[in-house]
Amino acid sequence: MKFLFRGLIALSLALIFQTNLSAKYLYKDEVIFNPSFTESVETLGNELYEKTGISLKLLMLKKLPDNTHIAEYEKTLIKEFSEPTILLTFSEMDSKVDILASDPSLYKYFNKKQVLSPVSSPVQAFVIALLNLDFSDMTSGGTILPLLAQKAKEKEILGKYSGSMFNGYADIAEQIADSKNIVLEHAVGNANKKSIFVVKIVFYGFLFYGIFMYIKRRLYFRKHRNEKK
């Protein structure tokens, strides 16, 4: 009986220790709970920290505390870390994503505005600006929001969350590595490009279809006007 009791204690301690280890870069996960996702974040985050000294932490929150803005939440949390730290935070119920660095100098290693852009390509940004008649901001290259905006069935929602947030996490990590002339063995640049390429194809498909239907409709009404004359 004592042996069984000791065994249970040892197993509990091992599980607690393992959980602590896996929570270093995926700092909070209240949404995904997927070992593969955790392992991917931990592997890339650990390599980035070992080679650059920058800790890139991902937070997957179910919901922000009441009456708390995501930026204020990040500012409170980031005080806990002594090393150079960048927080990438996602709140599912609030539909919010944000990035905060512990020191302003860290922003020179990556483009926050680009990572959080809602559009994925310069052409898409131009079309949106043209429709809104506002060319003051045409930032593109977003690696999170274009994927989050994709429709998904109920069973695919967690996959959409994990895919989009890891996409952004990897984008930040690779930009930091490039800025410091470091090569990350666990970089996923090609995977990022493929996923964003799919978003572009879908967007341009709808765009060209809309243009085609608009032209077709205009020609139809013009033809009928000519016939009436």
Summarize the structure.
The protein has 229 residues and is of the alpha/beta class. Helix content is 57%, strand content 10%.
Provide tags for this entry.
229 residues, alpha/beta, Diaminopimelate Epimerase, Chain A, domain 1, 4-stranded mixed sheet, 8 helices, 4 strands, 10% strand, disordered N terminus
Structure description:
The chain has a single domain, classed as Diaminopimelate Epimerase, Chain A, domain 1 (Roll), CATH 3.10.310.50. The model is unreliable at 1-22 (pLDDT under 50). Helix content is 57%, strand content 10%. The protein is an alpha/beta fold. It has a 4-stranded mixed β-sheet with strand order 1-2-3-4, with helices on both faces. The chain is elongated and about 75 Å long. The protein has helices spanning 2-22, 35-52, 70-78, 112-115, 122-132, 145-148, 157-179, 189-228, and strands spanning 26-29, 55-61, 85-91, 96-101. Helix 2 packs parallel to helix 7 (157-179). The N and C termini lie far apart (100 Å). It has 8 helices and 4 strands.
